[in-house]
TrEMBL record:
It comes from Paenibacillus ferrarius. GO terms for biological process: regulation of DNA-templated transcription. InterPro entries: SinR/SinI_dimer_dom, SinR/SinI_dimer_dom_sf. Residues 3-41 form the Sin domain. One of its GO terms (molecular function) is protein dimerization activity. The lineage of its organism: Bacteria, Bacillati, Bacillota, Bacilli, Bacillales. Coiled coil: none annotated. This is Sin domain-containing protein. PROSITE patterns: SIN.
Length: 59
C-alpha cells in the first residue's frame, strides 16, 4: 500500500471512529448503528446537491 493510500485509510478510519464514538455518546447501541447502516432507506447521494443550494442548510 502506498504512503498516500495508507494516510487516506487512516484518515477514513479516524472519521468512522469519531462517528461511532459520537453515536455511542448519544446512547445508540452498536446494534442500533448496524441497523441504521443496513437500512434500505438511506438517503441517496446527489452530486448536484451541495450545501450552497440546499435549502435545509442554507441561511
Amino acid at each position: 500500500m502506498s504512503m498516500l493510500n495508507q494516510m487516506k485509510t487512516e484518515e477514513f478510519d479516524a472519521e468512522w471512529m469519531n462517528l461511532i464514538i459520537s453515536a455511542r455518546k448519544l446512547g445508540l447501541t452498536l446494534e442500533d448503528i448496524r441497523a441504521f447502516l443496513r437500512s434500505p432507506y438511506q438517503p441517496m447521494k446527489n452530486p448536484h446537491l451541495t450545501t450552497a443550494n440546499n435549502t435545509c442548510t442554507s441561511s
